[in-house]
Amino acid sequence: HRDYRNVRKAIDWLASPESHAAPWCIFLPVSLPHPPYSCPQPFHSMHNASDITPPRPRGSGKPDFHELIRRYRRLDALPEAEAAMRSLHAVYQGCVAYADWCL
Questions:
Q1: Residue 55 lies in domain
Q2: Do residues 95 and 35 touch, judged by C-beta distance below 8 A?
Q3: b/e string for 1-24 if b means 16 or more Cβ within 10 A?
Q4: Based on the number of CB atoms within 10 Å of its own CB, is 33 exposed (0-12), middle (13-18) or buried (19 or more)?
């Protein structure tokens, strides 16, 4: 995966004599967790969809950004939308764990 390769390259450069020659700044973005939600095993299947808790209820008097996304993308119109969202969230959690592991 490119995140791992890029982090390894940065670590190798930091360990090299060139990194000590002058002041420097490093910018190292990682692409996970962002769509498409996919990452290497064992991270991809690290979490079970059945263990994912349902979304928190909307707070009183506060806009619910995630509810607006669900409405805009018509996610509730999907068959078995809650199960699909839990599966997606499980893979998302694996992507977060993978990004953490890379760093």
A1: 2-102
A2: no
A3: eebbeebeeeeeeeeeeeeeeeee
A4: middle
Domains in the chain, number: 1
Tens-digit pLDDT profile for residues 52-88: 887 666 666 667 777 787 788 777 777 677 788 889 8
How many other C-beta atoms can be found within 10 angstroms of the C-beta atom of residue 78?
12
CA dist 100 and 103 (Å) reads 5
The residue type found at 67 is E
Centroid of chain to Cα 69: 17
Q: What angle do CA 76, 33, 84 make, to 5 degrees?
A: 25
pLDDT tier at 1 (50, 70, 90 boundaries)? confident
Per residue, the 3-state secondary structure of 45-101, as one string, reads CCCCHHHCCCCCCCCCCCCCHHHHHHHHCCHHHCCCHHHHHHHHHHHHHHHHHHHHH
